[in-house]
Amino acid sequence: MGICDGRVVVITGAGRGIGREHALEFAHQGAKVVVNDLGAEVDGTGSSDGPVGEVVELIRKAGGEAVANGDDVADWNGAARLVQAAVDTFGRLDTLVCNAGILRDRMVVNMTEEDWDSVIRVHLKGHFCPLRHAAGYWREQVKAGDEVAGRVILTSSGAGLYGNVGQLNYAAAKSGIATMARVAGAELTRYGVTANAIAPAARTRMTEALFADMMAKPEEGAFDSMSPENISPLVVWLGSHESGDVTGQVFEVSGGLVAVAENWRRGPAQDKGDRWDPAELGPVVRELVAKSEQVRVIGAR
Ligand SMILES: NC(=O)c1ccc[n+]([C@@H]2O[C@H](COP(=O)([O-])OP(=O)(O)OC[C@H]3O[C@@H](n4cnc5c(N)ncnc54)[C@H](O)[C@@H]3O)[C@@H](O)[C@H]2O)c1
User: Which of 10, 62, 125, 233 has its CA 20 to 30 A from that of 31?
Assistant: First the structure.
């Protein structure tokens, strides 16, 4: 018996890296999986049906059920087809994992309009479109009198929570995704649907060159804390029937670590009770900033 027995799960960007491990673990835990991937390069260019085909093959060989989908998650109609693929193939949808992503890292002074647009599109719109279609599907199920235990897991990043030098576009998108989980979590409770986000860290083609030291493989036999397989247990649990009381959260996850990322909150404050004169704000602002507990942007000097 797995903790996702009989559940139907859609996973975006599941042909490689972290998403691939989610697909394998969900199947291992008894879920029927729609494996989505465009088969793009890390910068979002190109496409191939090789990676999804391999994952579907692996799941089937292990006795599980899976189907491939090659739609672009940031395409409105493509995302609709993806959600429909779950319903057409397996009769329903229980869990949506939005994981697909790309990188176009540049310092802001060199970032092009296309670098910005493509990253914002794949991450923000590529999370919104499947989420919107899945939410619409669950609302219809509730209206029809069906009991819904819908689960949504979005994929943020430490870059989105803390900022990362060289990733203005990606960090902005990933911050937005963390906030999407909080808002969707609040809005979808009434339909029996939870929404949470993860901020993972693992060795994939996205990170092995960028953070080479951190991502290095350990000695033979030691715990490989940067294996992408370490991310999936939390995602599978969040995607299971058991996690219905946890929503609107963002979890950092890496190796054996699971941590709740606390959201923006008001820090040191001063209320004059009247309108400020700009000239008097200098010392006030400096004192508030000095008292605050800001985490430095990753890579900042
Ligand atoms: N690896 C890390 O340490 C790390 C850290 C923080 C966040 N993340 C996030 O985790 C997710 C997975 O990243 P990964 O490291 O496994 O990278 P990856 O490049 O191995 O996997 C991403 C997958 O998404 C697919 N994809 C890209 N655009 C797509 C689109 N429009 N439609 C469908 N599929 C598309 C790619 O083809 C690829 O297979 C991403 O959202 C990434 O930003 C990863």
Answer: 125
For ligand 1, the distance from its centroid to the CA atom of residue 128, given in whole angstroms, is: 16
d(CA 87, CA 81): 10
pTM for this structure? 0.97
Cα of 170 vs centre of ligand 1, distance in Å, is 12
Closest-CA residue to 142 (of 192, 92, 195): 192
Any idea where the domains of the chain sit in the sequence? 8-260
- Cβ–Cβ under 8 Å, residues 185 and 249: yes
Catalytic residue list contains 170: yes
Residue that is written with structure tokens 């027995």 in the block:
5
Pairing of strands 250-254, 257-260: antiparallel
Q: What is the pLDDT of residues 133-144, one digit of tens each?
A: 999 999 999 999
User: Which CATH superfamily, name and number, covers 8-260?
Assistant: NAD(P)-binding Rossmann-like Domain (3.40.50.720)
